[in-house]
Amino acid sequence: MTHLAIIGGSDAGISAALRARELDPTTDVTVVVADEYPNFSICGIPYYFTGEVAPWRSLAHRTSADLEATGMTLRLNTYATGIDVTGQRLEVRTPAGATEQIAYDELIVGTGALPSRVGITGLDRLTPADGVHVIHSMGDTFALHRDLTPGSLSPDPPFWGGWVE
């Protein structure tokens, strides 16, 4: 059996995982996702803020349960920190902060693009605490929503109930 490891839980990584399982259902697929929101439409975030897309969960193409039902394994809130090409191992940092190795036969890196900083000096050092938001993930979306919602003291948006299947 082939073990395919994929870094990235947005459209590129998830599409690759789904296609691999479609071509060979015996392929063991592990997808490493840096946050807890696999297969979300990042391009839809502006429409969430305009109110054209609601609730925020509708930005998901598929739920985690839908994806796992295809036979893939999702490693949510897990960061890829290194690749050992010779040993065919992916080093990851788990949600608990531990370092683990994931063996693979094939590796796909489908992490998508980074937000452009357009050459603005100092932008890389500014954060939502400074009142500056760079929107690239659902976590970024929730941080901006908190800042735009008057009187919001909660660490998560008022509609947040956790991404539970």
Automatic annotation (TrEMBL):
Residues 3-150 form the FAD/NAD(P)-binding domain. It comes from the Bacteria. Keywords: FAD, Flavoprotein, Oxidoreductase, Redox-active center. Its cofactor is FAD. The keyword Oxidoreductase applies. Pfam families: Pyr_redox_2. PANTHER family: NAD(P)H SULFUR OXIDOREDUCTASE (COA-DEPENDENT), PYRIDINE NUCLEOTIDE-DISULFIDE OXIDOREDUCTASE DOMAIN-CONTAINING. This is FAD-dependent oxidoreductase. It comes from Schaalia naturae.
